[in-house]
């Protein structure tokens, strides 16, 4: 399983520019809008955005985004499940 990378101390303005920007595409609407998650530095802390396809392409180019792999997306989902429902592994053994 892919480990999530946590952000350390608060970044300076200079180091902020070097943080990785992640995009995870969630879907595309019939009218051509792209639904996606956008994160800076830590892929598990993201905002949900929707942009028209052309604006999405420009957004990705200007931010120099990294598209999340399936493994990274699964790790984020697993982390969210843990926070949402608790870590249930081993709960039956107690």
Topology:
Layout (H helix, E strand, L loop, with lengths): L12 H6 L2 E8 L4 E8 L5 E7 H11 L2 E2 L2 H16 L9
Parallel strand pairs: 1-4
Antiparallel strand pairs: 1-2, 2-3
| Total of DSSP H or I helical runs spanning 4+ residues | 3
Portion in strands? 25-35%
Order of helices and strands: HEEEHEH
Going across the biggest sheet, name each strand in turn. Answer: 3-2-1-4
Distance between the termini: 25 Å
The percent range for helix content is 25-40%
Radius of gyration: 16 Å
Q: What composes the largest sheet? A: 4 strands, mixed
Shape: flat
State the low-pLDDT regions, or none: 90-94
Structural class: alpha+beta
What do the pLDDT scores average to? Answer: 85
What characteristics describe this protein?
94 residues; alpha+beta; 3 helices; 27% strand; disordered C terminus
Short description:
With 94 residues, the chain is α+β, with helices and mostly antiparallel strands. It has helices spanning 13-18, 53-63, 70-85; strands at residues 21-28, 33-40, 46-52, 66-67. It has a 4-stranded mixed β-sheet with strand order 3-2-1-4.
């Amino acid at each position: 399983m892919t480990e999530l990378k946590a952000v350390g101390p608060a970044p300076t303005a200079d180091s902020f520019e070097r943080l990785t920007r992640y995009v995870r595409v969630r879907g595309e609407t019939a009218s051509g809008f792209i639904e996606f998650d956008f994160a800076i530095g830590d892929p598990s802390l993201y905002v949900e955005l929707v942009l028209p396809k052309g604006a999405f392409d420009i957004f990705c180019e200007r931010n120099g985004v990294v598209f999340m792999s399936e493994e990274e997306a699964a790790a984020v989902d697993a982390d969210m499940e843990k926070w949402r429902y608790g870590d249930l592994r081993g709960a039956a053994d107690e």
